[in-house]
Design goal:
The protein folds into two domains: about 190 residues, Rossmann fold (3-Layer(aba) Sandwich), CATH 3.40.50; about 70 residues, no CATH class. A six-stranded parallel sheet has the order 6-5-4-7-8-9. α2 crosses α3. It is globular, with a radius of gyration of 20 Å. By secondary structure, the protein is α/β, with parallel strands linked by helices. It has nine helices and nine strands. β7, α8 and β8 form a beta-alpha-beta unit. The longest helix is centred in the first third of the chain and has 19 residues. Helix content is about 35%, strand content about 15%. It binds S-adenosylmethionine.
Length: about 270
């Protein structure tokens, strides 16, 4: 069982708290680029989104910009991206490496049920909480700033489990021989034992395996958890360990991913 419930939409959204720069200030809508409205902190309320496509895409662009040069990805590669959620990193990889094949794979039942939905109703509820209402003249402009009105996923998301022979066979039948299997910031959601199993299964899918990971950061040393209870580790051996509550968790055995996983697996920080 992953540390987080991957069937729960709220779990996915909780991982993200993203400022949009759109505010309601003293009853007036402010959109980035507008003339400044001077206000005290208590007079303005920002629209904050979560795992929503338009605001997250800038982060996925950053992930892709690190991943592509780190692995030397090229047009002829066939990549299985494990834990893609809605495939946003794959969209950005595509832009950087035209004609590359990236299969997006995610086993979450929430991702499977929500991938074809739009985010409009969710974002409208967030706007209403801030006090931005459909009767306001700039409502359409605000909505367009936050969503293009399309579905969450624009890529095919394969609900296949690479831990099983059947899942791997189904993927190979559809995409051919993979050159890379890459997790898309999945490891922090897994116990050490699950991460080892997933890494081993990925080596049965492709000759090259990599993991994109948000690593532990020493700026979090003074906090009980950097974010919430996740499997935080350094990418590589640092000699300084990880200072956090995770040291007490039974599923946590080492402080860096490199020494836990197959020696051939490549780690890329995001
Ligand atoms: C932190 S989220 C990844 C975020 C995602 N890459 C994005 O860009 O939004 C971790 C993802 O891994 C998926 N996951 C966890 N275990 C998995 C597994 N064994 N196979 C495929 N996906 C898995 C979860 O469903 C979840 O979508």
């Amino acid at each position: 069982m992953p540390l987080l419930d991957i069937s729960d939409k709220a779990v996915f959204h909780r991982q993200n708290d993203i400022g949009t720069g759109v505010y309601l200030i003293k009853g007036q809508i402010y959109i980035p680029g507008d003339k400044a409205i001077y206000s005290k902190a208590h007079e303005r309320k920002e629209v904050r989104l979560q795992l929503h496509r338009k605001v997250c895409m800038a982060f996925r662009r950053g992930w892709a910009e690190k991943l592509v040069p780190a692995l030397g990805l090229k047009s002829s590669d066939i990549v299985a991206q494990i834990g893609s959620s809605f495939g946003w990193t794959a969209e950005e990889v595509d832009k950087l490496v035209p004609d590359i094949t990236v299969a997006c794979v995610d086993t979450s039942s929430w991702v499977a049920s929500a991938k074809g939905e739009t985010e409009t109703a969710e974002i409208e509820a967030i706007l209403a909480d801030v006090g931005i209402l459909p009767v306001m003249s700039r409502y359409g402009e605000v909505l367009a700033q936050l969503t293009d009105g399309g579905t969450r996923a624009r890529r095919t998301i394969e609900n296949e489990d690479v831990a099983t022979g059947k899942g791997r066979a189904n993927l190979k039948t559809k995409y051919g021989n993979f050159t890379w299997a890459i997790t898309d910031n999945v490891l922090p959601w897994l116990t050490d034992a699950e991460a080892v199993d997933l890494d081993a299964a990925m080596h049965k899918l492709a000759p090259n395996v990599a993991h994109q990971v948000s690593p532990y950061d020493h700026r979090y040393d003074d906090k009980p958890e950097p974010f919430q209870v996740l499997n935080w580790k350094h990418l590589d051996v640092t000699g300084t360990g990880v200072k956090q509550e995770l040291l007490d968790q039974s599923w946590y055995t080492v402080s860096n991913w490199k020494s836990l996983l197959n020696a051939d697996s490549v780690l890329v920080g995001v």
